[in-house]
Amino acid sequence: GTLIRHPGRFRMKALVHQMELVGVNSLAIIGLMSFLVGIVIAQQGAVQLRQFGAEIYTVNLVGRLTLRELGVLMTAIMVAGRSGSAFAAQIGTMKLTEEVDAMRTIGVSPMESLVMPRILATMIMMPLLGFYSAIVGIIGGAFLSSLTLGIPFFTFLARIQEVVPLHDVWVGITKAPVFGLIVALAGCYQGMQVKNNAEEVGARTTAAVVMAIFTVIVLDAFFAVFFTNIGWG
Predict the structure, then answer these.
(1) The pTM is what?
(2) Helix (H) or strand (E) holding 120
(3) Running DSSP on this structure, what letter comes out for residue 170?
(4) 77 Cβ partners below 8 Å, 6+ apart?
């Protein structure tokens, strides 16, 4: 509320720095994970669909599953393990060394300087990372299909545009900032709870990751039911 009333107090440099840490520095690991997940989905889907002579529907399976569910979900899990844990460890260490108390003493709000940039950066980057993850997953599926199913790489990508409805893309993008909020809140909250010793930093970091992943999976199940009920199933 204070930042809304006084937008000049917002730390833009801190936001950009956190966006780099959460987003840009995660591209490599998220891309590799998504590519391999796309390959696994295509391979396992093709094995099952081959029994019915329907290998061509592997395109539908990979496209809808990555854009709608797995792209953003796997990204959220990776961001929770990578950035959520970092938030908890960084803020927890600052609490332990009394840097947070020193900031309050000199009139700097820890919420404005530490928490808000991390939350906003995660919420902004999650839709981009989720979409990036889905695209790389589709490329992974297309790569495997061109090798084992006889579906040319670019034919696979062209068919994705035909079989994946646009609302599947919006489902993934809608869920992404909510997942980002959960991950960042869990990391910052657990970091702020550190009080006693270095061992508690480790415990709170673990708790942040577990809390974020559990909540994200529960919310994903809720979103699945919700979007099905409104006809976006």
Answers:
(1) 0.90
(2) helix 116-148
(3) H
(4) 213, 216
